[in-house]
Design a protein that fits this description.
Length: about 450
Protein backbone atom coordinates (compact mmCIF):
# COMPACT_ATOMS: atom_id res chain seq x y z
CA UNK A 1 0.00 0.00 0.00
CA UNK A 2 3.00 2.32 0.31
CA UNK A 3 3.25 2.59 -3.47
CA UNK A 4 -0.48 3.32 -3.57
CA UNK A 5 0.01 6.11 -1.04
CA UNK A 6 2.90 7.57 -3.02
CA UNK A 7 0.85 7.54 -6.18
CA UNK A 8 -2.01 9.35 -4.45
CA UNK A 9 0.30 11.98 -2.97
CA UNK A 10 2.22 12.73 -6.18
CA UNK A 11 -0.55 15.00 -7.38
CA UNK A 12 -0.28 17.22 -4.32
CA UNK A 13 3.49 17.51 -4.68
CA UNK A 14 3.16 18.51 -8.31
CA UNK A 15 0.68 21.31 -7.78
CA UNK A 16 1.52 22.82 -4.41
CA UNK A 17 3.68 25.56 -5.97
CA UNK A 18 1.35 26.72 -8.76
CA UNK A 19 1.53 30.50 -9.42
CA UNK A 20 -1.46 32.88 -9.37
CA UNK A 21 -2.27 34.97 -12.46
CA UNK A 22 -4.62 37.92 -12.92
CA UNK A 23 -8.34 37.18 -13.25
CA UNK A 24 -10.19 36.76 -16.51
CA UNK A 25 -13.81 36.06 -17.24
CA UNK A 26 -15.13 32.93 -15.52
CA UNK A 27 -16.48 30.32 -17.94
CA UNK A 28 -20.12 29.28 -17.91
CA UNK A 29 -20.80 26.88 -15.02
CA UNK A 30 -22.05 24.11 -17.29
CA UNK A 31 -19.21 24.37 -19.85
CA UNK A 32 -16.86 21.38 -19.58
CA UNK A 33 -13.38 22.55 -20.51
CA UNK A 34 -11.13 20.27 -22.52
CA UNK A 35 -7.36 20.27 -22.26
CA UNK A 36 -7.16 22.53 -25.31
CA UNK A 37 -9.63 24.96 -23.69
CA UNK A 38 -7.49 25.12 -20.56
CA UNK A 39 -4.36 25.76 -22.61
CA UNK A 40 -6.03 28.49 -24.63
CA UNK A 41 -7.33 30.28 -21.54
CA UNK A 42 -3.96 29.96 -19.81
CA UNK A 43 -2.16 31.51 -22.76
CA UNK A 44 -4.67 34.34 -22.84
CA UNK A 45 -4.34 35.05 -19.12
CA UNK A 46 -0.57 34.55 -18.79
CA UNK A 47 1.19 37.71 -17.57
CA UNK A 48 4.49 36.28 -18.86
CA UNK A 49 3.26 36.66 -22.42
CA UNK A 50 2.18 40.23 -21.73
CA UNK A 51 5.69 40.96 -20.47
CA UNK A 52 7.18 39.29 -23.54
CA UNK A 53 4.96 41.36 -25.83
CA UNK A 54 6.11 44.52 -24.05
CA UNK A 55 9.72 43.44 -24.61
CA UNK A 56 8.95 43.09 -28.32
CA UNK A 57 7.47 46.59 -28.35
CA UNK A 58 10.56 47.89 -26.56
CA UNK A 59 12.85 46.25 -29.11
CA UNK A 60 10.72 47.69 -31.91
CA UNK A 61 11.08 51.17 -30.41
CA UNK A 62 14.87 50.73 -30.39
CA UNK A 63 14.73 49.88 -34.09
CA UNK A 64 12.64 52.99 -34.76
CA UNK A 65 15.16 55.03 -32.77
CA UNK A 66 18.07 53.61 -34.79
CA UNK A 67 16.23 54.39 -38.04
CA UNK A 68 15.60 57.95 -36.84
CA UNK A 69 19.34 58.74 -36.91
CA UNK A 70 19.22 58.55 -40.72
CA UNK A 71 17.09 61.70 -40.94
CA UNK A 72 18.06 65.36 -40.48
CA UNK A 73 18.48 66.67 -36.96
CA UNK A 74 17.23 70.20 -36.32
CA UNK A 75 18.26 72.34 -33.35
CA UNK A 76 16.76 75.77 -32.72
CA UNK A 77 17.41 78.40 -30.08
CA UNK A 78 15.40 81.59 -29.58
CA UNK A 79 16.18 84.52 -27.30
CA UNK A 80 14.42 87.69 -26.18
CA UNK A 81 15.99 90.29 -23.92
CA UNK A 82 17.63 93.69 -23.52
CA UNK A 83 20.41 95.00 -25.80
CA UNK A 84 22.34 98.28 -26.03
CA UNK A 85 21.54 100.69 -28.85
CA UNK A 86 24.15 101.15 -31.61
CA UNK A 87 24.46 103.70 -34.45
CA UNK A 88 26.51 103.75 -37.63
CA UNK A 89 28.34 106.95 -36.60
CA UNK A 90 30.02 104.98 -33.86
CA UNK A 91 32.03 103.31 -36.67
CA UNK A 92 32.64 106.39 -38.87
CA UNK A 93 35.20 107.78 -39.44
CA UNK A 94 36.77 105.47 -36.88
CA UNK A 95 35.57 102.87 -34.44
CA UNK A 96 34.64 104.40 -31.11
CA UNK A 97 36.20 102.17 -28.45
CA UNK A 98 35.23 104.34 -25.47
CA UNK A 99 31.46 104.51 -25.67
CA UNK A 100 29.95 104.51 -22.12
CA UNK A 101 27.20 102.08 -21.08
CA UNK A 102 23.88 103.57 -20.05
CA UNK A 103 20.69 101.87 -18.88
CA UNK A 104 18.72 104.66 -20.51
CA UNK A 105 19.99 103.56 -23.94
CA UNK A 106 18.91 99.91 -23.60
CA UNK A 107 16.49 98.48 -26.13
CA UNK A 108 15.07 95.01 -26.74
CA UNK A 109 16.17 92.26 -29.12
CA UNK A 110 14.86 88.93 -30.40
CA UNK A 111 16.87 86.20 -32.14
CA UNK A 112 16.48 82.74 -33.65
CA UNK A 113 19.31 80.34 -34.53
CA UNK A 114 18.80 76.98 -36.26
CA UNK A 115 21.21 74.26 -37.35
CA UNK A 116 20.36 71.25 -39.51
CA UNK A 117 22.59 68.17 -39.61
CA UNK A 118 21.98 65.51 -42.26
CA UNK A 119 24.19 62.41 -41.75
CA UNK A 120 25.76 61.21 -44.99
CA UNK A 121 28.11 58.43 -43.90
CA UNK A 122 28.80 57.15 -40.38
CA UNK A 123 30.98 54.07 -41.09
CA UNK A 124 28.24 51.75 -39.78
CA UNK A 125 27.11 53.51 -36.62
CA UNK A 126 23.52 53.78 -37.87
CA UNK A 127 23.23 50.68 -40.07
CA UNK A 128 24.80 48.30 -37.52
CA UNK A 129 22.56 49.56 -34.72
CA UNK A 130 19.56 49.02 -37.00
CA UNK A 131 20.72 45.46 -37.64
CA UNK A 132 21.18 44.85 -33.92
CA UNK A 133 17.69 46.17 -33.15
CA UNK A 134 16.12 44.06 -35.93
CA UNK A 135 17.68 40.87 -34.57
CA UNK A 136 16.75 41.95 -31.05
CA UNK A 137 13.08 41.92 -32.07
CA UNK A 138 13.45 38.32 -33.27
CA UNK A 139 15.15 37.37 -30.01
CA UNK A 140 12.17 38.65 -28.03
CA UNK A 141 9.69 36.94 -30.33
CA UNK A 142 11.48 33.64 -29.79
CA UNK A 143 11.47 34.29 -26.05
CA UNK A 144 7.70 34.81 -26.16
CA UNK A 145 7.27 31.48 -27.92
CA UNK A 146 9.51 29.80 -25.33
CA UNK A 147 7.39 31.15 -22.48
CA UNK A 148 4.22 30.04 -24.25
CA UNK A 149 5.68 26.54 -24.63
CA UNK A 150 6.46 26.45 -20.92
CA UNK A 151 2.88 27.46 -20.07
CA UNK A 152 1.48 24.76 -22.35
CA UNK A 153 3.76 22.20 -20.72
CA UNK A 154 2.57 23.14 -17.24
CA UNK A 155 -1.11 23.09 -18.17
CA UNK A 156 -0.71 19.57 -19.56
CA UNK A 157 0.98 18.50 -16.34
CA UNK A 158 -1.79 19.97 -14.19
CA UNK A 159 -4.59 18.56 -16.35
CA UNK A 160 -3.13 15.05 -16.37
CA UNK A 161 -2.56 15.34 -12.63
CA UNK A 162 -6.26 16.15 -12.21
CA UNK A 163 -7.18 13.08 -14.24
CA UNK A 164 -4.82 10.96 -12.15
CA UNK A 165 -6.33 12.22 -8.90
CA UNK A 166 -9.80 11.32 -10.12
CA UNK A 167 -8.68 7.87 -11.21
CA UNK A 168 -7.18 7.32 -7.75
CA UNK A 169 -10.42 8.45 -6.14
CA UNK A 170 -12.45 6.02 -8.23
CA UNK A 171 -10.02 3.22 -7.38
CA UNK A 172 -10.37 3.85 -3.65
CA UNK A 173 -14.17 4.00 -3.96
CA UNK A 174 -14.09 0.67 -5.79
CA UNK A 175 -11.98 -0.91 -3.03
CA UNK A 176 -14.24 0.58 -0.37
CA UNK A 177 -17.30 -0.93 -2.06
CA UNK A 178 -15.69 -4.37 -2.09
CA UNK A 179 -14.75 -4.01 1.57
CA UNK A 180 -18.27 -2.95 2.56
CA UNK A 181 -19.81 -5.94 0.83
CA UNK A 182 -17.17 -8.25 2.32
CA UNK A 183 -17.84 -6.96 5.83
CA UNK A 184 -21.59 -7.40 5.42
CA UNK A 185 -20.99 -10.97 4.33
CA UNK A 186 -18.57 -11.58 7.19
CA UNK A 187 -21.04 -10.21 9.72
CA UNK A 188 -23.78 -12.41 8.27
CA UNK A 189 -21.59 -15.52 8.45
CA UNK A 190 -20.53 -14.65 11.99
CA UNK A 191 -24.17 -14.26 13.01
CA UNK A 192 -24.91 -17.67 11.49
CA UNK A 193 -22.14 -19.21 13.58
CA UNK A 194 -19.91 -20.10 10.62
CA UNK A 195 -16.45 -21.33 11.56
CA UNK A 196 -14.87 -19.73 8.44
CA UNK A 197 -14.99 -16.27 9.97
CA UNK A 198 -14.31 -14.77 13.39
CA UNK A 199 -14.23 -11.39 15.13
CA UNK A 200 -10.63 -10.82 14.02
CA UNK A 201 -11.71 -10.86 10.37
CA UNK A 202 -14.14 -8.04 11.08
CA UNK A 203 -11.39 -6.04 12.78
CA UNK A 204 -9.13 -6.56 9.77
CA UNK A 205 -11.85 -5.46 7.37
CA UNK A 206 -12.55 -2.36 9.46
CA UNK A 207 -8.85 -1.54 9.65
CA UNK A 208 -8.46 -1.92 5.91
CA UNK A 209 -11.55 0.27 5.36
CA UNK A 210 -10.01 2.95 7.55
CA UNK A 211 -6.86 2.97 5.45
CA UNK A 212 -8.97 3.17 2.28
CA UNK A 213 -10.80 6.18 3.71
CA UNK A 214 -7.45 7.83 4.40
CA UNK A 215 -6.34 7.27 0.81
CA UNK A 216 -9.68 8.60 -0.43
CA UNK A 217 -9.13 11.87 1.43
CA UNK A 218 -5.63 12.12 -0.03
CA UNK A 219 -7.02 11.57 -3.53
CA UNK A 220 -9.63 14.30 -2.93
CA UNK A 221 -6.89 16.60 -1.73
CA UNK A 222 -4.89 15.88 -4.90
CA UNK A 223 -7.93 16.62 -7.03
CA UNK A 224 -8.54 19.90 -5.20
CA UNK A 225 -4.91 20.97 -5.59
CA UNK A 226 -4.95 20.09 -9.28
CA UNK A 227 -8.07 22.18 -9.83
CA UNK A 228 -6.54 25.07 -7.88
CA UNK A 229 -3.39 24.87 -9.99
CA UNK A 230 -5.47 24.97 -13.18
CA UNK A 231 -7.52 27.93 -11.92
CA UNK A 232 -4.37 29.85 -11.03
CA UNK A 233 -2.71 29.11 -14.35
CA UNK A 234 -5.88 30.07 -16.25
CA UNK A 235 -6.18 33.32 -14.32
CA UNK A 236 -9.47 32.37 -12.65
CA UNK A 237 -10.53 33.46 -9.16
CA UNK A 238 -9.84 31.03 -6.33
CA UNK A 239 -13.55 30.35 -5.82
CA UNK A 240 -14.41 30.10 -9.53
CA UNK A 241 -16.34 27.02 -10.60
CA UNK A 242 -14.21 24.98 -12.97
CA UNK A 243 -15.77 22.08 -14.84
CA UNK A 244 -13.35 19.95 -16.84
CA UNK A 245 -13.90 17.04 -19.18
CA UNK A 246 -14.52 13.54 -17.87
CA UNK A 247 -12.16 11.73 -20.21
CA UNK A 248 -10.11 8.94 -18.62
CA UNK A 249 -6.38 8.91 -18.11
CA UNK A 250 -5.30 6.56 -20.90
CA UNK A 251 -2.33 6.01 -23.15
CA UNK A 252 -2.75 7.15 -26.73
CA UNK A 253 -1.78 4.07 -28.68
CA UNK A 254 0.43 5.56 -31.38
CA UNK A 255 3.77 4.50 -32.73
CA UNK A 256 6.61 6.44 -31.15
CA UNK A 257 9.07 7.72 -33.78
CA UNK A 258 12.81 7.13 -33.28
CA UNK A 259 14.84 9.48 -31.12
CA UNK A 260 16.55 11.06 -34.14
CA UNK A 261 13.19 12.41 -35.33
CA UNK A 262 12.71 14.37 -32.10
CA UNK A 263 16.32 15.60 -32.10
CA UNK A 264 15.91 16.91 -35.63
CA UNK A 265 12.65 18.68 -34.71
CA UNK A 266 14.31 20.30 -31.71
CA UNK A 267 17.20 21.62 -33.80
CA UNK A 268 14.83 23.28 -36.27
CA UNK A 269 11.95 24.40 -34.00
CA UNK A 270 13.30 25.06 -30.52
CA UNK A 271 12.96 28.82 -29.82
CA UNK A 272 16.10 28.81 -27.70
CA UNK A 273 18.16 28.02 -30.79
CA UNK A 274 16.51 30.90 -32.65
CA UNK A 275 17.13 33.20 -29.70
CA UNK A 276 20.82 32.36 -29.72
CA UNK A 277 21.18 32.64 -33.50
CA UNK A 278 19.44 36.03 -33.60
CA UNK A 279 21.27 37.13 -30.46
CA UNK A 280 24.65 36.34 -32.04
CA UNK A 281 23.73 38.41 -35.09
CA UNK A 282 22.62 41.28 -32.85
CA UNK A 283 25.81 41.12 -30.77
CA UNK A 284 27.97 40.98 -33.88
CA UNK A 285 26.26 44.11 -35.19
CA UNK A 286 26.81 45.87 -31.85
CA UNK A 287 30.52 45.03 -32.00
CA UNK A 288 30.74 46.60 -35.46
CA UNK A 289 28.74 49.63 -34.28
CA UNK A 290 31.16 50.12 -31.40
CA UNK A 291 34.14 49.85 -33.75
CA UNK A 292 32.57 52.47 -36.01
CA UNK A 293 33.22 55.04 -33.26
CA UNK A 294 36.89 54.96 -34.30
CA UNK A 295 35.88 56.83 -37.46
CA UNK A 296 34.31 60.26 -38.09
CA UNK A 297 30.74 61.09 -39.09
CA UNK A 298 30.37 62.76 -42.49
CA UNK A 299 27.41 65.12 -42.64
CA UNK A 300 25.83 68.00 -44.52
CA UNK A 301 25.16 70.97 -42.27
CA UNK A 302 22.93 73.98 -42.64
CA UNK A 303 22.87 77.17 -40.54
CA UNK A 304 20.31 79.96 -40.23
CA UNK A 305 20.66 82.88 -37.83
CA UNK A 306 18.40 85.91 -37.39
CA UNK A 307 18.33 88.67 -34.80
CA UNK A 308 16.54 92.01 -34.55
CA UNK A 309 16.92 94.84 -32.09
CA UNK A 310 15.08 98.15 -32.10
CA UNK A 311 17.37 101.15 -31.90
CA UNK A 312 20.36 99.46 -33.57
CA UNK A 313 21.50 100.16 -37.11
CA UNK A 314 22.18 97.20 -39.39
CA UNK A 315 25.84 96.90 -40.38
CA UNK A 316 26.39 95.33 -43.81
CA UNK A 317 30.03 94.38 -43.51
CA UNK A 318 31.35 90.80 -43.69
CA UNK A 319 34.05 91.68 -41.17
CA UNK A 320 31.55 92.79 -38.54
CA UNK A 321 28.92 90.47 -37.05
CA UNK A 322 26.25 92.07 -34.90
CA UNK A 323 24.81 89.42 -32.60
CA UNK A 324 21.72 91.56 -31.87
CA UNK A 325 20.75 92.47 -35.47
CA UNK A 326 21.65 90.26 -38.40
CA UNK A 327 20.41 87.75 -40.94
CA UNK A 328 22.73 85.07 -42.32
CA UNK A 329 22.93 81.38 -43.14
CA UNK A 330 24.77 78.79 -45.17
CA UNK A 331 25.39 75.15 -46.09
CA UNK A 332 28.59 73.16 -45.59
CA UNK A 333 30.00 69.64 -45.80
CA UNK A 334 31.45 68.59 -42.46
CA UNK A 335 33.09 65.81 -40.47
CA UNK A 336 32.78 65.21 -36.76
CA UNK A 337 35.37 63.04 -35.08
CA UNK A 338 35.46 62.25 -31.39
CA UNK A 339 38.75 60.93 -29.99
CA UNK A 340 38.38 59.58 -26.45
CA UNK A 341 41.72 57.82 -25.87
CA UNK A 342 40.65 54.36 -24.72
CA UNK A 343 36.92 54.66 -24.08
CA UNK A 344 35.95 53.39 -27.54
CA UNK A 345 38.36 50.49 -27.24
CA UNK A 346 36.83 49.51 -23.91
CA UNK A 347 33.32 49.62 -25.40
CA UNK A 348 34.41 47.41 -28.30
CA UNK A 349 35.97 44.94 -25.86
CA UNK A 350 32.77 44.93 -23.80
CA UNK A 351 30.56 44.19 -26.81
CA UNK A 352 32.94 41.46 -27.96
CA UNK A 353 32.81 39.91 -24.48
CA UNK A 354 29.01 39.80 -24.69
CA UNK A 355 29.29 38.12 -28.10
CA UNK A 356 31.72 35.51 -26.73
CA UNK A 357 29.43 34.91 -23.76
CA UNK A 358 26.59 34.12 -26.13
CA UNK A 359 28.87 31.73 -28.02
CA UNK A 360 29.36 29.82 -24.77
CA UNK A 361 25.59 29.78 -24.26
CA UNK A 362 25.23 28.31 -27.75
CA UNK A 363 27.67 25.51 -26.89
CA UNK A 364 25.69 24.79 -23.72
CA UNK A 365 22.40 24.66 -25.65
CA UNK A 366 23.90 22.47 -28.38
CA UNK A 367 24.86 19.95 -25.71
CA UNK A 368 22.02 20.10 -23.19
CA UNK A 369 18.91 20.53 -25.33
CA UNK A 370 19.52 17.19 -27.15
CA UNK A 371 20.18 15.65 -23.72
CA UNK A 372 16.85 17.00 -22.49
CA UNK A 373 15.08 15.61 -25.55
CA UNK A 374 16.66 12.21 -24.99
CA UNK A 375 15.63 12.18 -21.33
CA UNK A 376 11.99 12.94 -22.16
CA UNK A 377 12.07 10.36 -24.95
CA UNK A 378 13.39 7.65 -22.61
CA UNK A 379 10.79 8.69 -20.00
CA UNK A 380 8.10 8.17 -22.66
CA UNK A 381 9.39 4.72 -23.64
CA UNK A 382 9.79 3.64 -20.02
CA UNK A 383 6.31 4.88 -19.05
CA UNK A 384 4.67 3.09 -21.98
CA UNK A 385 6.34 -0.20 -21.12
CA UNK A 386 5.60 0.23 -17.42
CA UNK A 387 1.95 0.92 -18.17
CA UNK A 388 1.68 -2.23 -20.26
CA UNK A 389 3.30 -4.32 -17.51
CA UNK A 390 1.28 -2.87 -14.62
CA UNK A 391 -1.94 -3.21 -16.63
CA UNK A 392 -1.40 -6.95 -16.90
CA UNK A 393 -0.50 -7.05 -13.21
CA UNK A 394 -3.58 -5.19 -11.98
CA UNK A 395 -5.94 -7.16 -14.25
CA UNK A 396 -4.63 -10.42 -12.78
CA UNK A 397 -4.78 -8.94 -9.28
CA UNK A 398 -8.40 -7.99 -9.93
CA UNK A 399 -9.19 -11.57 -10.94
CA UNK A 400 -7.46 -12.67 -7.77
CA UNK A 401 -9.59 -10.25 -5.72
CA UNK A 402 -12.82 -11.36 -7.41
CA UNK A 403 -11.97 -14.99 -6.73
CA UNK A 404 -11.03 -14.27 -3.12
CA UNK A 405 -14.29 -12.40 -2.51
CA UNK A 406 -16.31 -15.16 -4.20
CA UNK A 407 -14.62 -17.85 -2.11
CA UNK A 408 -15.26 -15.82 1.00
CA UNK A 409 -18.93 -15.40 0.03
CA UNK A 410 -19.28 -19.17 -0.37
CA UNK A 411 -17.53 -19.75 2.92
CA UNK A 412 -14.59 -21.64 1.42
CA UNK A 413 -11.93 -18.92 1.64
CA UNK A 414 -10.41 -16.92 4.51
CA UNK A 415 -10.79 -13.15 4.80
CA UNK A 416 -7.04 -12.64 4.65
CA UNK A 417 -7.11 -13.66 0.97
CA UNK A 418 -9.31 -10.61 0.33
CA UNK A 419 -6.82 -8.33 2.09
CA UNK A 420 -3.87 -9.65 0.14
CA UNK A 421 -5.70 -9.56 -3.20
CA UNK A 422 -7.06 -6.03 -2.66
CA UNK A 423 -3.67 -4.78 -1.56
CA UNK A 424 -2.04 -6.19 -4.71
CA UNK A 425 -4.85 -4.91 -6.91
CA UNK A 426 -4.92 -1.38 -5.51
CA UNK A 427 -1.12 -1.14 -5.57
CA UNK A 428 -0.81 -2.36 -9.16
CA UNK A 429 -3.74 -0.24 -10.37
CA UNK A 430 -2.20 2.83 -8.74
CA UNK A 431 1.15 2.06 -10.36
CA UNK A 432 -0.64 1.69 -13.69
CA UNK A 433 -2.19 5.15 -13.40
CA UNK A 434 1.14 6.55 -12.31
CA UNK A 435 2.76 5.06 -15.44
CA UNK A 436 0.01 6.45 -17.66
CA UNK A 437 0.41 9.86 -16.03
CA UNK A 438 4.17 9.69 -16.58
CA UNK A 439 3.54 8.72 -20.19
CA UNK A 440 1.23 11.67 -20.87
CA UNK A 441 3.54 14.11 -19.09
CA UNK A 442 6.57 12.74 -20.96
CA UNK A 443 4.69 13.22 -24.24
CA UNK A 444 3.90 16.82 -23.26
CA UNK A 445 7.54 17.34 -22.27
CA UNK A 446 8.65 16.03 -25.66
CA UNK A 447 6.29 18.48 -27.36
CA UNK A 448 7.89 21.22 -25.30
CA UNK A 449 11.43 20.01 -25.99
CA UNK A 450 10.78 19.90 -29.74
CA UNK A 451 8.52 23.00 -29.79
CA UNK A 452 5.71 21.21 -31.56
CA UNK A 453 3.43 23.74 -33.30
CA UNK A 454 0.18 24.18 -31.38
CA UNK A 455 -3.06 25.05 -33.15
CA UNK A 456 -4.42 26.86 -30.10
CA UNK A 457 -1.41 29.15 -29.78
CA UNK A 458 -1.45 32.21 -32.01
CA UNK A 459 1.64 34.34 -32.22
Amino acid sequence: MKSFLRACMIVGVLFATAGISHAVETPAPQAALTLEDCVRMSLKAAPELGEAESDIDLATSKLDEAKGYRFPKLEMTTLFGPAPTAKRQDLNPYINTDKPFSFNELTWFASADATVIQPLYTFGKISENMQAATHGIEVNRALKQQRANEIVQKVHEYYYGLQMAREMKELVLEVQDILVRAREKAQKLLNQGSDTVDEMDLYKLDAFSGMATKYLEEAKKGESLALSALRARMGLPVDAKLVTGTERLVIVDVEIPPLETFLEKARHRRPEFRQIAEGLKARSALVEAAKANYYPDIFLGGLFSWAYADGRDRINNPYINDQFKHLNGGVALGARWKLDFGITGAKVAGERAQYNRLLSTKEYADTNIPLQVKKYYLDLIEAKKSAAATRIAYLNAKKWAVTAVANFDFGVGPAKDIFEALQAYSSMRAEFFKSVYNYRVAAANLDYATSEPLSYYEK
